[in-house]
Amino acid sequence: MAEAPKFGFVSLTQLRGVLIAFCGESLKFGPATQKALAPVGDLVRRAAAADHFTGKSGSSLDIVVPAGLNAPRLVVIGIGKDSDLKRQDIVKLGGIAMSKVPSVAAQATIIAEFGSGALKGGQIADLALGVRLRAYSFDLYKTKKKEDELPNKIEINFACSSPAGAEKAWALAAAIADGVVIARDLVNEPANVLYPVEFARRASTLSKLGVTVEVLDVAAIKKLGMNALLGVGQGSVHDSRVVVMRWDGGKRGVPPVAFIGKGVCFDTGGISIKSASGMEDMKGDMAGAACVVGLMHALAARKAKVNVVGAIGLVENMPDGKAQRPGDIVKTMSGQTIEIINTDAEGRLVLADVLHYVNKRFKPKFMINLATLTGAIIVALGQEYAGMFSNDDKLVDRLNKAGDATGERVWRMPLGPEYDKMIDSKFADMKNTGGRWGGAITAAQLLARFVDKTPWAHLDIAGTALGSPQTDINKSWSSGWGVRLLERLVEDYYER
């Protein structure tokens, strides 16, 4: 992976390297920015006029070797109206700022001020978060790189009125940034490197942050009766694992919040094998589990005042003489039975057992599971929203608000008895697919049978977590989707 930029928080008089400033509409600069750019004020105005730059949100003006300024380059980024900016907009501005730093630069300074004045510590941390996420790239396996891909350890300084306050705020935001990066790294890894046992080993490193980590091997999983999960992985040479992570940052005895992730480290489809086209993307079928690990890191690293359980089911779905077949019937940990209609509908089998296990053992306030579960959700929502299915209106409302705040948006999809009938089986309690129509919904209906009355939400992230849309803060195949969404949910509603 490319090395992360080194961050510094300096006074407004310490401007070094490439200089990046922000302005509002009609070239409105803050007072400190005006002072810093005074020697080139006329140059900026003339360049802006020549380029029709007015400070519109997201636009930029680039001046190379500005005469009168001790900087190799000056970049002015438009923010539009200060009053319209939300927290997520500031994160995006950080990403835009990072995109304007040349790959050959060794140092850059961002003046942390908008037209209305100096940014507060939390706003500077949001700006730095955007810089960090935009700077991410996954190039671990490249042995020959183009000139613009050559590694360059860059220092990004944030010039501000209170460097100490900004640095303190960044210490908390850095935990979130690192959590997203961890999730991205896990999803981007190839499956020959990141198989279930290796994934479990990496999750176990969270113990360094005070997270209690339990790794259940095949014998332990079998003893618990998680036969649906084991059935998915029985055709692989790589043994399945279940990892349970606990962060006890809240009051003793308070029920935890729980997050469950689908971790299919590679999905061939099993006996119901997928077509060859695009199968390489199935190394990312563990993005739900990656999100849970990244989230647990973020919460533990910033010492969140909440009790949290993170659980992931790790399997590899392969065709083999030992693999489960269409028509097989498995008994889940809950005692319910499932007829296998299609072995490529495997993620719900993994989640069914882990959901029941977490619910029975920890009795959480709520459970949220994440899974790259169905292609049907991409047909329905594209890649802009994750599908959200839930039995609890309050949880839905909170997830919606957290999604709007972070830009990781969710859209509620229906559940109902009419859809539930579509997965009734002639030979077992249910079948693992209801057919072509409403595929994302019937998958959620199956999961709903394993949560009892516990408030629960299922997030189908097939369209958002891998092959991710390119944005101002993500240029990676994997976005690390869900870490910021769920961290914000916890921060806003469950920490006391």
| First-to-last CA distance | 36 Å
Overall form: elongated
Biggest β-sheet: strands ordered side by side in the sheet: 9-10-12-11-15-19-16-17
Helix content, binned percent: 25-40%
Number of strands: 19
In percent, how much strand structure appears in the residues?
A: 15-25%
Number of helices in the DSSP assignment: 15
* Structure classification: alpha/beta
What would the average pLDDT be, to the nearest integer?
A: 95
> What Rg do the Cα atoms give?
24 Å
Oligomer: single chain
- Which spans of ≥5 residues are poorly predicted at pLDDT below 50? none
Topology (elements, then pairings):
Elements (H helix, E strand, L loop, with lengths): L5 E5 L7 E6 L7 H6 L4 H11 L8 E5 L8 E6 L8 H13 L7 E5 L1 E2 L2 E2 L2 H15 L19 E5 L3 H26 L7 H9 L7 E5 L1 H7 L2 H7 L7 E8 L8 E11 L19 H15 L5 E11 L11 E3 L5 E3 L7 H16 L4 E5 L4 H6 L4 E5 L2 H14 L3 E3 L4 H4 L9 E2 L7 H10 L7 E5 L22 H11 L3
Parallel strand pairs: 1-8, 2-4, 2-5, 5-8, 11-12, 11-15, 14-18, 15-19, 16-17
Antiparallel strand pairs: 3-4, 6-7, 9-10, 10-12, 13-14, 16-19
